[in-house]
Amino acid sequence: MTDIAEPQTTTIATPPTRWWALDPEAATAQLDTDPATGLSSAEVTTRRERYGSNTLTAQAAPSVWSVVFQQLRDPMNIMLIAVAAVSAAIGQGSTALIVGFLVVINVVIGTRQEMLARKSVDALATMQEPQSRVRRDGALVQIPAHDLVPGDIVELEAGDIVPADGRLLRTATMETQEAALTGESTPIGKDVITLADDEVPLGDRANMAFQNTSVTRGTGTMLVTATGMTTQIGNIATLLSSVEKTKSPLQQELDKLTKVLGVIAWTAVAVIVVIGIVRGQSPSDLLFLATAVAISAIPTGLPTFVQAMLAYGARQLADAKAVVANLNDVETLGATSSINSDKTGTLTLNEMTVTALYTIGQHFTVEGSGYAKSGKILQTAGADVPDLTPLAYGLCLASDATVSDSGAVIGDPTEAALVVLAAKLGIDAEESRRTYPRVAEVPFDSAYKFMATAHWLPWRGDRSLVEVVKGGPDVVLQRCTHALAGPGQTVPLEDMRADIEAEMERLAEQGLRTLAFATRFLTPADEAALVADPMSYVEELVFVGLVGIVDPLRPTAKVAVEIALKAGIEVRMITGDHAVTASAIGRQLGLGPGAISGPELAALTDEELLERLPNLHVFGRVTPEDKLRLVQLMQKQGLVVAMTGDAVNDAAAIKQADIGVAMGSGSEVTKQAARLVLTDDNFSTLVHAVELGRSIYQKITAYIRFQMSQLIGLVVLFLAASIFDIADGVAMTPMMVLFLNFFVAVFPVIAIMLDPVGPGIMDRMPRDPKLGISNGYAVRRWILYGMVLCISSAIPLVAGPDTPAADTPTASMTMAFVVMGLGSVLSGLVLRREPESGLAAPLLTAVKVLSAPVILVVLATELDFLQGWLTTQSLSGPQWLACLGLALLLPIVAEIDKVIMRHRAATQLVLDPKEAVSPARARS
After folding, report:
1. Tell me, what DSSP letter sits at residue 648?
2. Where's the Cation-transporting P-type ATPase N-terminal domain (predicted)?
3. For 7, which DSSP code?
4. What are phi and psi of 852, to 5 degrees?
5. Long-range pairs for 586-593: beta carbons < 8 A, 24 or more residues apart
6. More confident call, 570 vs 260
């Protein structure tokens, strides 16, 4: 494995370059790169031709024909091919033709869905491709990672995915997470120190960064040394390319169901053939009957319909601004029973606004909202006008964000709020930064929660070296020894600590996020040491003041939380804010009771936390380990957990969750760890996605309920006719069964697919994920509905108009065919929804769709050419009325069953509201 990209067209082996053993100057010289200006456009073109694109070449995608062959090997299609062959052998050419056409339809639809799924994954991968900040032609530009070439100069910061392998030229408190490569669970500290010219293990190459690892802290500058398949991750990609894609639990369950149905079908065929042989039936009659039974017992559209429904759901989610990484995640969404939500930008607008400030012992109220630079600073009447210069320095100099006059923000939203406050104080932040450049800097990091910059500033008529600090109040206060008490007046911090802490509590109780500001006045002699080690000077500070910042709730957030709670989904808010602040916001949202801080949480054992969890809904100041622990404990309780986040420290919990949810504006780390990406960063979109997931699962179960009822009804009807010698042992002809399965049954399926989301879908508790589609209760209902359909269709065969002397029981068989057809249509109407009545509004779309198969059944019995093809005959008025009455039996039974189901669910809710379960669980 080499560490420099070699031309993808050559096969000449070259010794690997030990980049870790070269100092930065030697490394850049070897790749002929200027760290200050980067590569020229012409040189980039040359190198791309030589090295190729910075992409991982996986196993070649299968051709369309290989996918077609795979579809043909599906057990369902194999059975249909066998039926077509037998039909052709016994002279049933039209049957063979129809079955063969059905195979073609299945293969075409299955292949199309497979190819569309691959395109969807490719599109998602493109959408989530990391963007890289690269020096080209002397300018810093942002480009897709695949455009990188060896020799590029890349700037990295916390939250970035490293886009290629490279030698680090500059670092500032930089750490990367390399578990995917080295197995090291903790982040690796990075620096630029040259290592020995030996075979240094991968995990010890501290001056190198590797593709697809994540920057968890600090910043750095990297010289790209390897791209594409020549990177360390490229070697892993080579191994992964041979790994087979596994099927989802839903697909595995459907595969098992298909195999069971195959056994049922061929067992029924075998029983009927044995009975026919005993009775001395001719081989051609036996094959004719066996063909009809086989066709009736094969759920031809089951796999294709489920895959189509999942794809349809994925498209619906994408339209709703929620992109799933895998089609099967659509089904998992519907089972969500708990949501752990980030606050900032998800439940709130992420438009930070300073509404209060405190300095030199005085309170001030700030007018205005959002990023508009208009608004007044209000104070108590009669108070002296304070000198806010020390605070203004901190607002504009210890931050990097910019806010245009139109309100466009570049940078951190909290810093943008500070820039807006500075503007309200009459301070131009950008002009101030140009006038007073930084002498030294301690970048903000979540590990120490502050930022410090040093400048030469005018201070009371003199030019002074001043360090300005902003950060969390607790950490800033720990580094302060004095406090600003008036113009040029400082006092020991202890003299004002009680007032400061009381103000912090007051602001927190209002749901405001607080930031503290401090300064330190240095001497010219301190400059050299300050530049060399700026962190060591963030001590002995003078406390300047506090600001209270609010991030307004999204207008839809409170309603979305109400919908989720009504749907039996627990919602918990997890934030970096103090627990008191977070609790105030939780109350505004209508979350459940209880707030806890990270340190308190860490002190609890797993047993204690599980005991308290039902009464804890707000978590403040939590660590990434706390978030991961919460998800794991909730999953052990059997909950299906959705976890939202946008920052690097959310990634572990997001990956662990059943539905990890990343924000579209979040870090690449969280997007790649997630199963769902919300492109609008909106909590209400997640709740809507859960609703769509429930709807899709409901449609899948409705289809299977309809399909299995019809299948059981047909198979039992054929077995009963053969065993009891009803209608000479032949309940229907193969063409009748084909007509029902292929022409009639397709319309109820369409009605199920187009059925709008039921109004009560978010009024019930989440389904139990352990309760599969083919659970005991569901199977019993399939059998019940199938038997009702069988009995209603068998009545004309037993007591129909044909006499025993008739050569062909055409009228009786026709009536059985009509009852089965109309019964299937009406069952599609009532079984499309559960536990709601299938006769509840809206009905118009379903009625329009289902009118078509009713017309087809009528034509099949009245048109001459269809009579000859299907072996049917015209029916009289009374016979039609009898058929309609018998066809109504199944929908009547189904509706009564659903009334009982709703009653039991309501009874359970009254008896024990806290333990309320879904209607499906109530009957299991």
Report:
1. G
2. 18-92
3. P
4. -65, -50
5. 586/617, 586/618, 588/511, 588/553, 588/558, 589/347, 589/553, 589/557, 589/558, 589/561, 590/558, 590/561, 590/562, 590/565, 591/561, 591/617, 591/618, 592/565, 592/617, 593/617
6. 570
Q: Within 577-727, where are the H helices?
A: 579-589, 598-603, 606-612, 624-636, 651-656, 668-673, 683-723
**CA–CA separation, 721 and 813 (whole Å):** 11
Asked if residues 918 and 771 have their Cβ atoms less than 8 Å apart, the reply is no
Q: Are 782 and 706 in contact (CB under 8 A)?
A: no
d(CA 573, CA 126): 31
Buried b (16+ CB within 10 A) or exposed e, 138-175: eeeeebebbbbbbbbbbbbebbbbbbbbbbbbebbbbb
Give the distance between the most distant pair of CA atoms in the chain: 123
CA 820 – CA 813 distance, rounded (Å): 10
Q: What distance, in Å, lies between the first and last C-alpha atoms of the chain?
A: 56
Neighbours of 563 (CB within 10 A): 19
- Number of helices (H), then strands (E), belonging to the chain: the values are 34, 27
Interval 48-86: pLDDT, tens: 999 988 887 655 556 778 777 877 777 667 777 777 777
Provide the angle, in degrees to the nearest 10, between the axes of the packed helices 302-319 and 93-127: 30
What are the start-end ranges of the H helices in 279-399? 283-297, 302-319, 329-333, 389-397
Cβ atoms 484, 490 nearer than 8 A = yes
pLDDT-derived band at 902, boundaries 50, 70, 90: confident
Closest CA to 672 of 16, 7, 130, 20: 130
Residues with a known catalytic role: 342
What does pTM read for this prediction? 0.69
Q: Can you list the alpha helix ranges (DSSP code H) found in 63-190?
A: 64-72, 75-89, 93-127, 179-182
Angle 2-7-9 (CA atoms, 0-180°, nearest 5)? 125
Instruction: Say yes or no to pLDDT of 338 above 50.
Output: yes
* Residue 407 · residue 590 · CB < 8 Å: no
Q: Please tell me what DSSP assigns to residue 243.
A: P
Burial level of 348, CB count in 10 A (0-12/13-18/19+)? buried
CA distances from 820 to 575, 739, 839, 889 (A): 58, 11, 20, 11
Chain-centroid distance of CA 345 in Å reads 17
Secondary structure of 13-64 in HEC code, one letter for each residue: CCCCCCHHHCCHHHHHHHCCCCCCCCECHHHHHHHHHHHCCCCCCCCCCCCH
Tokens representing 423? Answer: 């503007």
**Quick one: pLDDT band at residue 5, thresholds 50, 70, 90?**
very low
| Spatial separation of the C-alpha atoms in residues 318 and 664, rounded to whole Å | 12
User: What separation in angstroms does the CA of 924 have from each of 249, 702, 706, 898?
Assistant: 20, 17, 19, 14
